[in-house]
Structure formats: structure tokens, C-alpha cells
Amino acid sequence: MATILVADDNWANLELLSGLLQVEGYEVLSVVDGGQALEVIRSRPVDLILLDVRMPELDGFEVCRQVKSSSDTRLIPVVLVTASTAGRDRIEGIECGADDFLNKPINREELLARVRSLLRLKQFTDELENAETVLFSLALSIEAKDPYTEGHCDRLSQYSVVLAERLDLPSELRIALRRAGTVHDIGKVAVPEHVLLKPGPLTPEEWRVMKQHPLVGEHICAPLKSFRHVLPVIRSHHEKLDGSGYPDGLKGDEIPMTARVLQVVDIYDALTTSRPYRKALPARDTFALMRKEVERGWLDASLVDKLEVLVNESALPLASVETNHER
Asked: Chain-centre distance of CA 269, in angstroms?
């Protein structure tokens, strides 16, 4: 049963809306001002919000704005209810993030149709969120198997987004990189632990198994349409500019920019955090080694340059844990 919050300072309107919804089997929470609405939203799960535009203290626009500005509540559908026919109210409602509008006097059929439509959307969104949560949990569980990878995913998410911002990449690619920082190695779930955690060099057969993990990771994440920009990062973050990487042997610009961004910050994090056989390297030594990889034709020189500038500007979040064991 869906839970709907109705906020209106007019008792007659409040009772009308609540009654229409309760008859349809919905659980209705009724409040008379914007402040009370926010208290309810913060204290319990809500599937849909109906907000009167004109309310004392906080009006519907401000409540909607606060709901949509919080990562915890921004996916809750918000319907603004108004008696005004002024176009500016709809414009302001759109600007504050409202998902739909209802005009007073309320038409029962229109109300219920909009409620059903938005609740279906909320259900799809919840399912998507749950699927993403499962993937992130799986990726972090892989990281947790090895004490030398603790914090690695979180740092890669942060570092790659900062570098993407410096490159002025579109917002959808920044979001993809934030997600990819966590799930880029999710395919290692298919790599046996004796290979994944092996302290010494891998045998040719073990390398063959290891090199499959980008393909496995792409396959795991492929069903999520929201991950369409993440998939190229998962698949290609071990490619090298000279074509000697894996799994596809891509060269130069064939490698997606997002994959090159993640690769550069991945190597930076690997060198600046401790491993079982050596301590973390200082930034100067790290970039000296990375430039040798540029000379070999493995890394994008421009990205290494930009990352070094960010480090010198102290623009990257500091690594809180000195751990890493990336291959």
C-alpha cells in the first residue's frame, strides 16, 4: 500500500483529498503547513507528495525545492496543487522540481489518474535504486576481501569526478564516473580468490582468467539502462593507448575518455597508497612513474598533466587509508 502525504492549510481541501485517496486504499498522511510536511518526509518513507502551493510559513514551492535538493528525498514524486491559473506559478513549480500539477477544484478522475501514474514511476525508480544498491554492495564486498583495497573504490569515485570536472565533461559522464569508481572491477566476482589475492606473479592461465573481469563486469551491469555510460568504463579501463591493453586491444581515441580518466586515477591511487611489498609513494615519484608509462604509450599524457595540476593545487580529496592492491 502506497503512502501519500497531503499538505494543505485549508481543512476542507485537506479532507477532500484525503478522503478520495483513502477510498482507493492509499495510506494518507495529512498536514496543514510546509514545516509539518518536511518533518513527516524526514521521519518516515513517503511514496508521493501532494502540496498546496499557498501555505503559511513554508509554501509548496519551498517544500518542493527542499525535497528535490536532498539526495534522500529527491526521487519522491511531488504534485503541486493550486487554484491559480497564472503561468508563472507553473514555471516556478517546474524550476523547483515539481513532477506534476493539479488545479483546484480537484477533479477526482484526474487526481487518481495522476496519482496512479506517478506511483508507477516511483515503483520503477525504487526498483532501479535497489538494483544499483545490490551492485554497489557486491562491488564493495569484492574490495573487502583484500585488506589492501580498502577505500580504493571510494577514492576512485572522488578522484575521477574531480578530474572530469576539470575536463569539463558533461554531467552524465561525471555521474557515470562516480558510479564506475565503485563498480569498475565488479567482474572480479568471477575471479577465484587464489588468483585475485595471489601475492606473486600470475601464471599465463591465471592472467587469462583475470583479463576476463572487465567483460564479466560489463555483463553484470548491462541490464541497468542508467549504467549505459558506465559500461564503457567497466569494459575499457584496462586498455592502453598503444593497443597492448585488454580485453579489446583498443588504441588511442578508440578508448573512451571516461575509461582513460578512471585508468589514470586508478594508477595514481595504486602508487600513492601502500601495498604489502612497498610503502605509498609521494606524488613526485608517482608522477615520474606515470610519465614512464606515458613514454611507453600506455597512458594519456594530457590526463596525467591535468591530474598532476589538481594534486599540486590540493584539489583531490586526501586518501584516508593507505591501501591498494590493484593489478
From this structure: 21
